[in-house]
Specification:
By secondary structure, the protein is α/β, with parallel strands linked by helices. The protein is about 35% helix and about 20% strand. The protein has two domains: about 100 residues, Urease, subunit C, domain 1, CATH 2.30.40; about 300 residues, Alpha-Beta Barrel (TIM Barrel), CATH 3.20.20.140. The protein is built from twelve helices and 15 strands. The N and C termini lie far apart (about 50 Å). It binds zinc ion.
C-alpha cells in the first residue's frame, strides 16, 4: 500500500535552549558514588569498597580513592553497584489485561503513548536504564524515545522498533475484525512479498525506528490457529535483513516454531525472540552464527491464562512447557542469551523477575546478570553501556547485599542513576 507523498517542508530552527546554562553546569558536575561492592560484569570479580566518579553523564573513574574538590558524594553503604540493566524485549505502550484485544480499535495514539510514560517510569524505578521496545503502534515508542532523551519523562533510554513487521493476517497483524477495520499497510508494518517487506523496513526507519522487529512465525497472543508456523517466507526475511543492514540496523525475530526459527537465523537476524520450539539444528545454527536468544521466560511461569480467550489460552498451555524446557536446553548448549521479558504480557514492574527465572532455568547468577548488561548491550549494538568503566554512560544501579549469592537482590534496587542523574535513592 502506498501513501500519497507530500512535498517536504523544511523548517530551519535556530532557537537557543533556555536551559543551556543548566546543561553546561550539569556537564561539568562531578559526583562520587561510594558503595561496599561493585560487580565487574565482564569478569565476575566483586570489587570491594567501590568508588565511582561520574562527570556529567559519563563515568570518569571506577577506581578513584580521592574525592575531587567540589564533588558531590553519594555514600550508598552496604550495596552492590551494577551497570544499569537492559531489557531487550519490551512493549512499553501495552499491558495485557482482560479485554485488552479491543483496545487497538478504541484508543488513540495519545492514549497509547501516555500508557508508555507510566510503564517506562516503572521500569526505570526497577533498575532498567535501557529498553529495546520491539513493537508499538503509532510510533509512540519513537516519541517516547525523544521525550526520554530530552529529559521530559523519567524513563530508560529507548531503542524503538516502531511497528513489528508481519504478513497480512499474521501474528503482527490486527486480526478478528471485519474488513476495513484496523487494516494494515507498510507504514503499520504489514507486508506481503519482498518488495513490500523492504518498503515496510524503510517506513519504520523513516519515522524513527532504530531496530527492526519481524514476526517470523505465528504466535500465542493472536488469533491464527498455529502457534509456530512460519509466516514471512525465507525470501521476505532475507530482503528485510538486507535492507536493514544497508541502514546499519539489526533485525529481531519473534519466532516460536522450529522451521521459522531456522529460516530467520539463516536470513541473518541478530536475535530470536522466545525461540520456544528450538531443536538441536536451530541451536547449533545459532551458536555457529552468534545469533542471540532472548528467552522472555518469566512470562511462562506467570502469565495470567484465565484472562485469555479460549483459543489463545489453549495455545499458551501447549507451548509454554515446551518453551521452558528449551530455554534450559539452549543455556546448556551455550547459545548466547540476552535478557528480555516481553513486558506488557507481564506487568512492567515485574520484568525484573526474569533474572531469577533465568537462574531457575539453569544460568548462573553472573550469567543472568551478564545477559541483562554486557550481552544485551552487545545485541543492541550500544558499546557505550552495559559495564561500569571510564568513558561509558553513567547508568548505575545499586542493589542490597550480593546478587551473586542472591539473584533476587536485583528485585530490590535502592538506587538508580541514568546519564549521571539520580532517579531513585
Ligand atoms: Zn513481544
Amino acid at each position: 500500500m502506498r501513501l500519497l507523498r507530500k512535498a517536504a517542508v523544511v523548517f530551519a530552527c535556530v532557537a537557543v535552549p533556555a536551559s543551556q546554562a543548566d546543561s553546561q553546569a550539569f556537564s561539568d558536575s562531578v559526583t562520587v558514588i561510594r558503595a561496599a561492592r561493585m560487580l565487574d560484569v565482564s569478569t565476575g570479580n566483586m570489587v570491594q569498597n567501590a568508588v565511582i566518579t561520574v562527570t556529567g553523564d559519563r563515568i570518569t573513574s571506577v577506581t578513584g580513592s580521592t574525592v575531587p574538590a567540589g564533588a558531590r558524594v553519594i555514600d550508598l553503604g552496604n550495596v552492590t553497584l551494577l551497570p544499569g540493566l537492559i531489557d531487550a524485549h519490551t512493549h512499553v505502550t501495552s499491558n495485557l489485561e482482560a479485554g485488552s484485544y479491543v483496545r487497538p480499535a478504541r484508543e488513540t495514539d495519545a492514549d497509547v503513548t501516555v500508557r508508555g510514560v507510566r510503564n517506562l517510569r516503572l521500569m526505570l524505578q526497577s533498575g532498567f536504564t535501557t529498553v529495546r521496545d520491539v513493537g508499538s503502534t503509532g510510533f509512540a515508542d519513537v516519541a517516547l524515545m525523544r521525550a526520554s532523551d530530552a529529559g521530559w519523562i523519567d524513563a530508560p533510554r529507548i531503542i524503538p522498533a516502531g511497528h513489528s513487521l508481519g504478513i497480512t493476517g499474521g501474528h503482527c497483524d490486527h486480526t478478528g475484525w471485519k474488513p476495513g477495520v484496523l487494516e494494515g499497510s507498510t507504514v503499520t508494518g504489514i507486508a506481503d512479498g519482498p518488495d513490500e517487506a523492504v518498503e515496510a523496513v524503510r517506513q519504520q526507519l523513516k519515522y524513527g525506528a532504530k531496530v527492526i522487529k519481524i514476526c517470523a512465525t505465528a504466535g500465542v497472543l493472536s488469533f491464527e490457529e498455529s502457534v509456530g508456523a512460519q509466516q514471512f517466507s525465507d525470501e521476505e526475511m532475507r530482503a528485510i535483513v538486507e535492507e536493514a543492514a544497508r541502514h546499519g540496523v539489526k533485525v529481531a525475530a519473534h519466532a516460536h516454531g522450529t522451521q521459522g526459527i531456522i529460516a530467520a537465523v539463516r536470513a541473518g537476524v541478530a536475535s530470536i525472540e522466545h525461540g520456544s520450539m528450538l531443536d538441536d539444528e536451530a541451536i547449533s545454527l545459532m551458536r555457529q552464527r552468534g545469533t542471540y536468544l532472548v528467552p522472555t521466560t518469566y512470562l511462562a511461569d506467570s502469565i495470567d491464562l484465565r484472562i485469555l480467550p479460549p483459543l489463545l489460552r489453549s495455545k499458551a498451555e501447549s507451548i509454554l512447557p515446551i518453551a521452558r524446557a528449551n530455554v534450559t536446553r539452549a543455556i546448556r548448549a551455550g547459545v548466547k542469551i540476552a535478557f528480555g521479558t516481553d513486558a506488557a504480557v507481564i506487568p512492567h514492574e515485574h520484568a525484573i523477575r526474569e533474572f531469577k527465572t533465568l537462574v531457575d532455568r539453569g544460568m548462573t547468577p553472573l550469567g543472568a546478570i551478564q545477559a541483562g548488561t554486557i550481552n544485551a548491550a552487545d545485541l543492541l549494538g550500544t558499546a557505550d553501556r552495559g559495564r561500569l568503566a571510564p568513558g561509558l554512560l553513567a547508568d548505575i544501579v545499586a542493589v542490597p547485599g550480593n546478587p551473586l549469592s542472591d539473584i533476587r537482590a536485583l528485585e530490590r534496587a535502592t538506587f538508580v542513576m541514568k546519564g549521571g542523574r539520580v532517579y531513585k535513592q
